[in-house]
Specification:
By secondary structure, the protein is of the alpha/beta class. The protein contains 10 helices and 9 strands. Helix 3 packs antiparallel against helix 10. The longest helix is centred in the middle third of the chain and has 19 residues. It is globular. The mean pLDDT is 95.
């Protein structure tokens, strides 16, 4: 089986890279491998840097799976929301290095991270579900509500508005945007700074700050299990 996710741990930083074709589609195998990589990072007590390939972080869920059947689509959505819930409560800092486009589930991965760095360029970031005929799942709605700037919530979720990396900072998908030349060194510098945190205090504060959102996501996972897109 081809490896779709790699994990390299060095100096208390676990760099997890998506490498599933041109759009880095999020499939069952990708989620399984992401969870395995997170297990390795957790065991090593490492800061996580999640990234993709140049120009593409992720274009979202594997559309072949999503179009196969309603039960197939909802099984992948449930697995994906469970992953983002894990990221939101992860014991160590999670940084996403958004290497290009981040669409649909790709953008939700941004919303599940503690810090997001984007690379400047002609890239699209956002939630396009409504534009491609998919009703947003409960977990997605609540994650977006909890992490996006309020003025962008309706525009992103209900109107499927896509934004540039710079606009994504205002919207709440990203925290910082840098040039391609500055991207790798900026990611490394911020990840290294995160390794200096008191991890127990970081985790306990994270759980306290996100308690309401985490509870909502638990409820949404159960709701989505019994609903249809």
């Amino acid at each position: 089986m081809t490896e779709l996710v790699t994990c390299n741990i060095e100096n208390q930083v676990a760099t997890i890279t998506l490498q599933n074709g041109k759009v880095n589609a999020i499939s069952h195998q990708v989620i399984d491998e992401l969870n395995s990589a997170l297990d390795q990072a957790e065991q090593a007590q490492a800061v996580v840097v999640l990234t993709g390939q140049a120009g593409m972080f992720s274009g979202g869920y594997d559309l072949k799976v999503m179009k196969e059947s309603m039960s197939s689509a909802m099984a992948l959505v449930e697995k994906g929301t469970t992953l983002t819930r894990r990221m939101l409560a992860f014991p160590f800092p999670v940084l996403v290095a958004c290497s290009g486009h981040a669409i649909a589930k790709g953008a939700f991965l941004l919303l599940a991270a503690d810090y997001r760095i984007g690379v400047d360029g002609a890239f699209k970031i956002g939630l396009n579900e409504v534009a491609i005929g998919m009703t947003m799942h409960h977990g997605g709605v609540e994650l977006a509500r909890g992490r996006l700037a309020p003025v962008f919530f309706n525009r992103s979720v209900i109107l499927a508005e896509m934004v540039s990396p710079k606009e994504a900072v205002t919207a709440g998908f990203l925290d910082k945007v840098v040039s391609e030349a500055e991207f790798a060194v900026t990611v490394q510098a911020i990840a290294n700074a995160m390794t200096k945190l008191d991890m127990k205090a970081h985790h306990q504060t994270k759980l306290k700050a996100r308690a309401e959102l985490l509870q909502l996501l638990d409820e949404c996972i159960e709701k989505d299990r019994h609903s249809s897109l």
